[in-house]
């Protein structure tokens, strides 16, 4: 190969840099297609290409005797998610346990639980929870959040350990897979 830069293959393609003599470039492509398009894609790959129009003149091409047919495999089937232990229905503002029973929460308890479930894994300080849920700019008492979290825990059941207390800091939702938020 010459040390000059090869010309673009098409008007809108990028210029290519020359490779050292004997260098090989492997290109891997992944296609996600419907089953109807799979046969058409296989025909495209098994067709003998016309090398004279697509390869620059200073390059040499070695065509294999028999074209290698790409092996197409299907994507793995998705794993079914376990049934959530708690379902939050946002529009009717209801909480449903896995057994189908409803949990009666006040408006502020519902908003606090929804906020924690929408932001799992983060430790939320009591003052930030007061600002986000109660829209307080001044802190009346951080015990307000503690009382509401205790009431939520009592109402949803002691066996669901969803809200974790981070001592001296605030609260965190640790099990986002146990809760499903339904917005419709």
Strand numbers in spatial order across the main sheet: 3-2-1-7
Give the terminus-to-terminus CA distance: 63 Å
The description of the largest β-sheet is: 4 strands, mixed
* Percent of residues in helices: 25-40%
Shape: elongated
Q: What's the alpha carbon Rg, rounded to whole Å? A: 30 Å
Strands, total number: 7
Structural class of the secondary elements? alpha+beta
Secondary-structure element order, N to C: HHEEEHEHHEEE
Average predicted confidence as pLDDT:
76
Number of helices: 5
Low-pLDDT stretches are 1-15
Percent of residues in beta strands?
A: 5-15%
Structure report:
The relative contact order is 0.12. The protein has helices spanning 35-46, 51-54, 107-118, 126-134, 143-156, and strands at 86-89, 94-97, 102-103, 124-125, 163-166, 170-173, 179-182. Strand 1 and strand 2 form a beta hairpin. The chain is α+β, with helices and mostly antiparallel strands. Helix content is 28%, strand content 13%. The longest helix is centred in the last third of the chain and has 14 residues, at 143-156. Helix 3 packs across helix 5 (143-156). It has a four-stranded mixed β-sheet with strand order 3-2-1-7, with helices on one face. Strands 4-6-5 form a three-stranded antiparallel β-sheet.
């Amino acid at each position: 190969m010459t040390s000059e830069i090869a010309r673009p293959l098409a008007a809108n393609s990028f210029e290519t840099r020359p490779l050292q003599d004997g260098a090989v470039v492997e290109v891997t492509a992944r296609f996600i297609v419907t089953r109807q398009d799979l046969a058409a894609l296989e025909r495209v790959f098994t067709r003998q290409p016309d090398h004279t129009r697509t390869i620059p003149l200073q390059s040499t091409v070695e065509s294999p005797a028999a074209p290698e047919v790409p092996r197409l495999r299907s994507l793995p089937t998705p794993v079914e998610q376990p049934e959530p232990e708690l379902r939050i229905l946002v529009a009717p503002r209801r909480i449903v346990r896995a057994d189908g029973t409803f949990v009666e929460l006040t408006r502020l308890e519902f908003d606090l639980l929804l906020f924690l479930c929408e932001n799992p894994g983060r430790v939320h300080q009591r003052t930030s929870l007061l600002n986000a849920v109660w829209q307080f700019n001044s802190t009346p008492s951080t015990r307000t959040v503690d009382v509401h979290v205790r009431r939520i825990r009592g109402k949803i059941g002691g066996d669901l350990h969803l809200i974790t207390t981070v001592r001296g800091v605030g609260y965190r939702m640790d099990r986002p897979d146990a809760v499903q938020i339904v917005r419709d």
